[in-house]
Amino acid sequence: MLNKLRTAISEKGCAVGTFLGVSTPPIVEILGYTGMDFVVIDTEHGPYDTMPASDLIRAADSKGLSPIVRVAEVTHKEIQRALDNGAEGIIIPCLRETEEFRKAVDLCKFPPVGNRGFLKARGSGFGNEDWAKGTLEEYMSNSNEKALLLPQCETREALENIEEIVNIDGIDGIFIGPFDLSISMGMPGQFKAPEFQQAVRRVLNACKEAGKLCMIFSTTVEDAKGYMKEGFDAVANSIDTLMFMKVYKEMMDEIRGGE
């Protein structure tokens, strides 16, 4: 397989990663020694522009992590730069209408699936990676396989049309954003509410029936384990800012508590 995330899912049943909001390349390299499978470089909420994101992608690649980029919107600039720099997956937030999902395919995939702009850039070793050395048709096919399109389901509108969305050719899977989805459903943070849990199962079942990947964000180890048991293909647990805060607060509590 050309995509490290798909490889991890195939070998382990469920891939585990985390979100990056403030991390630098050395931190990503450190994460590569933890047994983690992927990182999500968050350019929606995080401070990363093209060059910082490219540095994080390179750091992830160097340690065998699959670099996934969450872009801010469905635009040529956002998606093209992330893919050209080597993102192995694109997560897109806040989508509502089915046509927005189709536009994402158009920008993420080469023909005949979409209409991504052509360039053999850093992500292909400037054309020198083995998978990028064949004919132009082979390059486009391999690129489509290597870069996963994983739009988010985090709005009521997307939820209501999820069965149609997952069957769009070129969409490789769905990433559930539980916080924004719960807010859109009018039940902010009520993740244990039956209606919300039913919504999550609806997305998961739709993905399974369509043969597409289903990923989700979690905030606790217990939730992550629960999602793994439910059959999710990948779980992104927590974000670097929360983890830094948690670990250092625990350290300070121990130090001060021992005085």
What would you note in describing this structure?
This protein is of the alpha/beta class and 259 residues long. It has a single domain (4-257), classed as TIM Barrel, CATH 3.20.20.60. Helices cover 47% and strands 15% of the residues. The protein has twelve helices and nine strands. It has helices at residues 4-12, 25-31, 50-62, 76-84, 98-108, 136-146, 156-160, 162-165, 178-184, 194-210, 221-230, 240-257, and strands spanning 15-20, 38-42, 66-70, 89-91, 148-149, 152-153, 173-176, 213-218, 234-239. Strands 5-4-3-2-1-9-8-7-6 form a nine-stranded parallel β-sheet. α2 (25-31) runs parallel beside α3 (50-62). The protein starts with a helix and ends with a helix.
